[in-house]
Design brief:
Length: 381
C-alpha cells in the first residue's frame, strides 16, 4: 500500500426532512449567497424547504449555474459576492452547482480572475466557507474538494481543487423528481468514479479493493430496481450514499488511480456538451479494451467479484467483463458508442491532436498519450 494522508472534514446530514436542519447549521451572523441551477428546485419543493429553513438569515440568491459550470457564469456570482460582502455560500443543486460554488468560494477573496485559480490553485489563499443541499447524486462533490470548470471562450474543461463543504444535506426524497436520464448518468458516473480508483494496480490494498467492490456490487444490484421503481426511498438512499462514498477519498487510500476515462470524457463534454456521466459510459469500455493487458488482473477480479464471471480461460473472462461493463451502461438506457450520439472522426482527431500538442499523459502508469487516446476513441466509435 502506498503512503497517504487522509482527511475529510465534511459533515454529512442524511435522511428524510433534513433540509430543515439548515436553520441551526448556518450561524445567524453570516451573510449567505445561495447558489442554484436552472430552477428545478422550485418544482420539486426543495427551494421552499431551503427558504423556510433560512427564515431570519441574511441571504441572497444566485441563479443560473449550468450543467458543466462555466467560468463565464461564475464570474457574475463572484462579482456579486464581492460587492455584497458574502461570507457563507450554500450550494443547492447537483454536482455542477456544487462545483461552481467551490470556485466562487475561492474567487470571492481573490484579486484576480477566477480562471487563474483553475489554472493554478496554488494562488488560493482563503476560501469562503460553503455547504450544500444535494439534489442529484453523481459527482461526489458534496463530500470532496474537487470540481470541474468549463471555459466556453477557449473550449476547455479543467479539474479544479479547493475546499470541502463544511456540511452537506442529503435527503433521498429530492431524487424522486429526477428524469430517468439524469439518474442513469448519475449511476454511470458513480460506477466509473469507483473504477478509476480500482481498476489499476493489483494487490495494493485488500480493504480498498473490497470497499470499491461493495459499491460496484450495490450499483449493479440496485440499478434495474431503480429503473423499475424510481420513487423507492430505500433504493434511492442506497444510490445517494454510493455516489457520495465513490468519490470522497475513502476508496483511494493507498492505491494508484487512473482517471484517463474522465479526462477523455471531459474533452467530449467540452466539444459537444454531452452529459458527463454519459461520456464515461461510452469511454470506459474502450479504455478497458485498449489497456486490458495493463489492467488484466484487475479486470479479472472485477469480472469475478462484481459480475460473477467465473467460467472460461482468462482471456475469455477479460473480454466478457468488458462486455458486461458496457451492457450495464446500456441497461441504464445509455448509448455506449460515439456514433450513436452523433460524434465522429473529426472529434477523435481534435482530441488526439490536443493531447499530443500539450504532451498530455494519462492513466495510472502515465502512458496514455494522444495516440493511445485515439485508439480508445476508435474502439468505441
Amino acid at each position: 500500500m502506498n503512503n497517504f494522508t487522509f482527511q475529510n472534514p465534511t459533515k454529512l446530514i442524511f435522511g428524510s426532512g433534513t433540509i430543515a436542519k439548515l436553520t441551526k447549521e448556518i450561524p445567524l451572523d453570516k451573510k449567505i449567497m445561495i447558489t442554484f441551477g436552472s430552477g428545478s428546485v422550485k418544482q420539486n419543493g426543495v427551494y421552499e424547504q431551503v427558504k423556510e429553513a433560512l427564515k431570519g438569515h441574511n441571504a441572497i440568491e444566485f441563479w443560473g449555474i449550468e450543467p458543466n459550470p462555466t467560468v463565464e457564469t461564475l464570474r457574475k456570482a463572484v462579482a456579486i459576492g464581492k460587492e455584497q460582502g458574502i461570507d457563507f455560500l450554500l450550494a443547492v443543486g447537483g454536482g455542477s452547482v456544487l462545483d461552481g460554488t467551490k470556485l466562487i468560494s475561492s474567487a470571492i477573496p481573490f484579486n484576480g480572475d477566477a480562471w487563474e485559480l483553475v489554472l493554478n490553485p496554488l494562488l488560493i489563499k482563503y476560501m469562503i466557507p460553503l455547504a450544500s443541499v444535494l439534489t442529484l447524486p453523481a459527482t461526489g462533490s458534496e463530500m470532496n474538494r474537487g470540481a470541474v470548470i468549463s471555459n466556453h471562450a477557449i473550449h476547455e474543461k479543467r479539474a479544479f481543487y479547493s475546499s470541502h463543504p463544511q456540511f452537506s444535506i442529503l435527503d433521498p426524497l429530492v431524487t424522486f423528481s429526477l428524469p430517468e436520464y439524469q439518474v442513469a448518468c448519475g449511476i454511470a458516473d458513480t460506477f466509473v468514479h469507483v473504477v478509476e480508483q480500482y481498476l489499476t494496480t493489483p494487490g495494493q490494498s485488500l480493504l480498498m479493493d473490497r470497499w470499491s467492490e461493495s459499491i460496484l456490487q450495490t450499483l449493479v444490484e440496485i440499478a434495474p430496481k431503480i429503473k423499475a421503481d424510481p420513487h423507492n426511498y430505500d433504493l434511492m438512499s442506497q444510490f445517494m450514499l454510493c455516489a457520495t462514498m465513490a468519490l470522497n477519498g475513502f476508496t483511494a487510500m493507498g492505491v494508484t488511480q487512473d482517471w484517463a476515462t474522465h479526462m477523455i470524457g471531459h474533452e467530449i463534454t467540452a466539444l459537444h456538451g454531452l452529459t458527463h456521466g454519459h461520456t464515461l459510459a461510452i469511454i470506459l469500455p474502450g479504455t478497458m479494451s485498449i489497456m486490458k493487458n495493463q489492467k488484466w488482473d484487475k479486470i479479472l477480479q472485477l469480472g469475478e467479484r462484481v459480475f460473477k464471471i467465473l467460467n472460461g480461460d482468462e482471456a475469455l473472462r477479460v473480454e466478457q467483463t468488458i462486455i458486461e461493463t458496457e451492457q450495464f451502461f446500456r441497461s441504464l438506457g445509455l448509448e455506449t458508442k460515439l456514433h450513436e450520439v452523433g460524434i465522429g472522426e473529426e472529434t477523435i482527431l481534435k482530441i488526439k491532436n490536443r493531447f499530443l500538442k500539450e504532451e498530455t499523459v494519462l492513466g495510472e502508469a502515465q502512458n496514455i498519450d494522444g495516440n493511445i487516446t485515439e485508439q480508445i476513441l476508435r474502439q468505441v466509435l
